[in-house]
Design a protein that fits this description.
Layout: H1 3-23, H2 32-49, H3 52-68, H4 74-91, H5 104-114, H6 119-168, H7 173-227, H8 232-239, H9 245-259
Helix pairs in contact: 2-6, 2-7, 3-6, 3-7, 4-7, 4-8, 5-7, 6-7
């Protein structure tokens, strides 16, 4: 569970809700035609730009990443790969067969090694899967970005519709209030959907793509070293390059201390 996403949405909703409560009746800010214009129009514009199936897949992926985002620690991944390498050197590649590995991508790679597949096939297969994962995240990001762009635009369209309705019936004062509500609330709804939901999730997907790229590229390099039967210490030294500078320095210092 990603607490940051939940906390951010709750905090944003509380701030807006508090402003509404201190200013008057909550019912004033509920307008079905305005919701239909923003949500329906934004969805329609998005499915015009992307295949319908991809839109639903992206919505599900965005929700999963936003609310169940799991941070992958490169240092833990390096340690696990080094442990696997030590096991291979002591017991052979077959020792990896059906071994319990937490990360699904690393598990798949280690199983390839255990099954004795050609190194070129292993690398090609894992790189293809990584690229497909990145492609799905990128498309989901673009779809959420499209929703974030469309929602305020349709909010403006709703504002124009409401103003036209209001100006065309100025002789009937009873129509001015509802028309003005449509005019203003569509802008509010569009801004909320874009800035509190769609665009933050789009950024979250972009961040997730960077994490997946580093993590799975690290895993591919580690699995290829496993396949070659390299020394665990050599593998660790090579993969340390994937760590942030501070963590890299700490890892080097820890290795130096262990050597002494």
């Amino acid at each position: 569970m990603d607490i940051a996403t939940i906390a951010g949405i709750i905090a944003g909703s509380v701030v807006v809700g508090f402003a509404i409560l201190t200013g008057g009746d909550v019912g004033t800010f509920v307008n079905v035609p305005s919701m239909l214009i923003v949500i329906g129009g934004g969805f329609a514009a998005t499915v015009i730009r992307f295949p319908l199936k991809n839109v639903f897949q992206a919505l599900a992926l965005g929700g999963k990443v936003a609310f169940t985002h799991k941070q992958t620690d490169p240092k833990e991944m390096i340690d696990q790969i080094a442990e696997l390498a030590d096991k291979v050197r002591r017991e052979g590649p077959l020792s990896l067969d059906n071994l319990e590995v937490d990360d699904p991508f690393l598990k798949k790679g280690s199983q390839f090694v255990a099954d004795g597949y050609d190194p070129a096939f292993i690398q090609e297969s894992l790189e293809l899967e990584r690229d497909q994962n990145l492609s799905r995240l990128d498309e989901a990001k673009r779809i959420y970005k499209a929703i974030g762009d469309a929602a305020p635009a349709f909010g403006m369209i709703g504002t124009i519709v409401g103003l036209v309705q209001m100006l065309s019936n100025m002789e009937d004062p009873s129509t001015i209030g509802p028309a003005m509500a449509v005019a203003l609330l569509t802008t509010l709804y569009g801004a909320l959907i874009a800035n509190l939901v769609a665009l933050p999730i789009a950024d979250k997907l972009g961040t997730k793509a960077k994490i997946v790229d580093v993590s799975q590229t690290l895993t591919i390099d580690g699995v290829m070293q496993l396949s070659a039967g390299k020394n665990p210490n050599l593998i660790r030294e090579m993969l340390v390059a994937y760590l942030p500078e501070k963590a890299r320095m700490e890892a080097v210092a820890a290795e130096a201390a262990a050597a002494t």
